[in-house]
Amino acid sequence: MRSLLAALVSVAVSFAVVIAAGFQIHEKTQSIPDSVFGFAAASSIAILAGGLYCLFMGIAPWKHLPAKGTYPLPWSGNRNLPAPPSYVRPQTPAQIAYAEDAAALATCEHLQGIERSMRAAGLAVRLEKQSVHGPTISATCRINQAELIRYFNLPDWISYREGYQPERSPWDNPRADIFCGECVKKDPGRCDILALHPDECGPDTPWFPSPPPAGQ
């Protein structure tokens, strides 16, 4: 009932305002063709009526736009509506247990030294859902490949790779992986550590195991 009343009042007020304004304009000039004047009047009535209806009903036509914090609606009863919540990936019991146990290790025996050092360094390390095609863990850091090889004395079968997974562009989905080739067949679900590709990094992104020398 309220919405119907708001619609009727909006149309009536819009019609009266536009017609009154139209007569004032039409009396002062005869240079506007009737067809153009009629189209302009009809469009003005529709736009004004829509705006008034939104005003009366407290509707924000742009509410589909992303909001930060809160967005005020001066014509609504609630002037401080919360922004839509951001999506958070649900965690499995294994992921929760891994996050709560700083000593837990999930990678294969050849990568556990790297994983242990990442966690000890305070990096954001997350256990990924088990998959033979995905990483075992992901670490929010940028890899210094030369120092990684030197510090951990890595064998040839452990490699660091940077690349893309192209979709619409050859540079879609950048990724960087520390990969154990020794375990790819016997233990594929535990042989990959996902790090950040240089394209995903900024000045504040932590390096692992240490930053490169200045100027490199």
Q: What does this 3D model show about the protein?
A:
The chain is an alpha/beta fold and 216 residues long. The protein folds into 2 domains: 2-82, no CATH class; 93-208, no CATH class. The protein has 5 helices and 8 strands. The strands form 2 sheets. Strands 3, 4, 5, 6, 7 and 8 form a 6-stranded mixed beta sheet that branches. The longest helix is centred in the first third of the chain and has 27 residues, at 2-28. It starts with a helix and ends in an 8-residue tail after the last strand. 15% of the residues are buried.
List keywords for this structure.
216 residues; alpha/beta; 2 domains; six-stranded mixed sheet; two-stranded antiparallel sheet; 8 strands; elongated
